[in-house]
Amino acid sequence: MAYIKLIDGAPAPYSFRQLRMDNPNVSFPKEVSDEWLSDYNVFPLSDTPPSVTDMQVMDTGAIERVKGVWTQAYSVRDKTPSEINSEIADKANSIETGSARDKAMFLLFVDMWRETNPGMTQQEVRAAVRERLRVHLTK
Predict the structure, then answer these.
(1) Residue 95 · residue 107 · CB < 8 Å
(2) With a cut of 70, which residues of the chain have pLDDT below it?
(3) Where are the domains of the chain?
């Protein structure tokens, strides 16, 4: 379970382990109640992240008190075109420079592309294969 501790009125992430370390001379019961924890300004934190799709990003917000319960806030937004392109480039890179099988597949695609487009340079062929991968990965 996650907890927060109110420090000067502001919630800060906290753990039961930290509570024990901060109070070495206190004998803690095996199971503690929320009421008992509140004596130490420690409260349970409701932390349920929302689900996101591959085209979204979850941002962590502030810890807020909602209807008497300390809750971790989250926001979900669509990925920017820059984030999508960066992710696609990373995936294409991992395919090109990844496992031996991935490298072999990439080079096979490059060879096949080159056979059907003999006027292209090696660099142009690699760029074309990367673009096809980008298109495939965005579907």
Answers:
(1) no
(2) 92, 95-96, 98, 136-139
(3) 3-78, 81-138
Q: Positive or negative, the Cα torsion across 46, 47, 52, 57?
A: positive
pLDDT in tens, 97-126: 767 777 777 777 777 777 777 888 878 877
| 5 phi/psi in degrees, rounded to 5 | -125, 135
Angstrom CA distances, 48 to 33, 58, 72, stand at 21, 12, 7
Residue 66, Cβ density class (10 Å: 0-12 exposed, 13-18 middle, ≥19 buried): exposed
Residue 46 structure tokens: 């409701």
How many angstroms separate the CA atoms of 52 and 54, rounded?
7
Q: What pLDDT is attached to residue 75?
A: 95
